[in-house]
């Protein structure tokens, strides 16, 4: 799509569009099977190992999951493989910038934060499982070959398709459930609308890239485009419209900046969600390290978002340590991520109360738990063609 067509009028219209296909499948489930059918569908979507789709799902849902996926012509599988290999070389940095930078900064989109908050996704009783499931999704998607569609769907394709219908379930719940506060689509847009979906996809692509720089991991222009390609494919599988797909990194930055100017603003929901996120991540760590997540979050996030989201200040000892060790922060932070992965691997409970273990693919585990695998491999200086500025930085701390 020509970038000049990304106007305010166009994006306003996209706020009233969800996912017609996914929404129709959820509506079919409710019409033919009632609330019990929605519960069965939700259970299937939340279990990453549940495949193939069981016979008790609505016929349209089974057809959706069993149907072949055909990628559009712009999908470059060589670039996707390149992005996958980048993750396998730097899994700790990726997890850190995803959860303590990009995911946190997403809550600066006030209407997107409202969805998380009002759907009660960040209730302390469910947030721990949500974090485990989100981290598992990352590993499933970036496993080499996981986004293949021939001769059969890769694990990542199935995982993202499940997330797509989960989005539709959330949309159905917020728009039609009598047990939640009425949703004002005219003022806020429909939940998880096309503009907010595009914002989320580009946030993880672009904010991860600029977050890598804070950890002194500098990617070439080719590697950056490959990372964007990976997230564009994720957007496609989530039901993102073709006319919201940027052709390259320059277009992605332009579209993202426009959406940020439209949607980023402070909100009580965004602030609450960031603090709940921090509390849950602390719970995965030994008590002696529980003061570090907020320190690392403040280090990784852009100062503008630290202020806008009112990220808590670090307790004094942790703050002092990070000031003393700041020159080596790019080496300290992967150690924190290492401990976080160990915490995620600890057995938890799934949505039925059964033991749940976070699964790290064996090739990644070999790198995660081998000594000295991160800091010595990070590029200490940006390449000549590397990215030298964040995708969107709304300003500095006042």
Descriptive notes:
About 60% of the residues lie in helices and about 0% in strands. By secondary structure, it is an all-alpha fold. Strands 1-2 form a two-stranded antiparallel ribbon. The longest helix is centred in the first third of the chain and has 27 residues, at about 20-45. The radius of gyration is 20 Å and the shape is globular. The two termini are about 40 Å apart. The model is unreliable at about 370-380, about 385-390 and about 395-398 (pLDDT under 50).
Instruction: Report strand %.
Output: under 5%
Biggest sheet, in brief? 2 strands, antiparallel
N to C succession of SSEs: HHHHHHHHHHHHHHHHHEEH
Distance between the termini: 38 Å
Radius of gyration (Å)? 20 Å
Mean pLDDT: 85
Determine the structural class based on helices, strands and strand pairing.
Answer: mainly alpha
Number of strands: 2
The global form is globular
Low-confidence stretches: 371-378, 385-392, 394-398
Helical percent range? 55-70%
- How many helices? The count is 18
Across the major sheet, the strand order is 1-2
């Amino acid at each position: 799509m020509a970038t000049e067509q990304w106007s305010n009028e166009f994006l306003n219209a996209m706020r009233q569009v969800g996912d017609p296909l996914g929404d129709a499948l959820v509506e079919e489930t409710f019409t033919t099977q009632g609330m019990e059918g929605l519960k069965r569908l939700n259970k299937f979507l939340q279990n990453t190992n549940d495949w193939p789709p069981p016979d008790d799902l609505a016929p349209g849902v089974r057809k959706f999951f069993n149907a072949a996926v055909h990628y559009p012509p712009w999908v470059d599988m060589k670039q996707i493989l390149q992005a996958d290999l980048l993750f396998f070389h730097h899994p700790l940095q990726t997890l850190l910038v995803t959860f303590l930078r990009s995911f946190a900064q997403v809550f600066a989109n006030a209407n997107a934060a409202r969805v998380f908050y009002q759907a009660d996704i960040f209730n302390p009783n469910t947030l721990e499982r949500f974090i485990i499931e989100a981290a598992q999704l990352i590993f499933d998607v970036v496993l080499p070959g996981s986004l293949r569609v021939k001769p059969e769907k890769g694990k990542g394709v199935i995982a993202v398709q499940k997330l797509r219908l989960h989005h539709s379930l959330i949309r159905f719940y917020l728009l039609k459930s009598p047990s939640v506060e009425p949703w004002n689509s005219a003022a806020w847009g429909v939940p998880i609308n096309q503009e907010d979906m595009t914002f989320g996809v580009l946030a993880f692509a672009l904010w991860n890239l600029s977050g890598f720089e804070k950890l002194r991991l500098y990617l070439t222009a080719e590697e950056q485009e490959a990372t964007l390609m990976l997230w564009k494919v994720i957007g496609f599988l989530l039901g993102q419209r073709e006319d919201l797909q940027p052709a390259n990194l320059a277009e992605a930055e332009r579209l993202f900046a426009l959406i940020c100017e439209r949607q980023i603003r402070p909100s009580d929901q965004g602030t609450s969600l960031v603090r709940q996120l921090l509390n849950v991540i602390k719970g995965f760590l030994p008590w002696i390290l529980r003061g570090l997540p907020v320190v690392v979050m403040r280090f990784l996030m852009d100062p503008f978002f630290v202020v806008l989201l009112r990220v808590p200040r670090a307790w004094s000892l942790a703050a002092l340590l990070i000031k003393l060790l700041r020159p080596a922060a790019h080496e300290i932070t992967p150690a924190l991520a290492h401990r976080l992965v160990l915490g995620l691997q600890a057995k938890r409970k799934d949505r039925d109360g059964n033991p749940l273990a976070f699964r790290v693919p064996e090739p990644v585990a070999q790198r995660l738990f081998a000594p000295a695998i991160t800091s010595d491999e990070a590029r200490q200086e940006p390449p000549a063609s590397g990215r030298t500025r964040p995708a969107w930085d709304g300003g500095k701390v006042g």
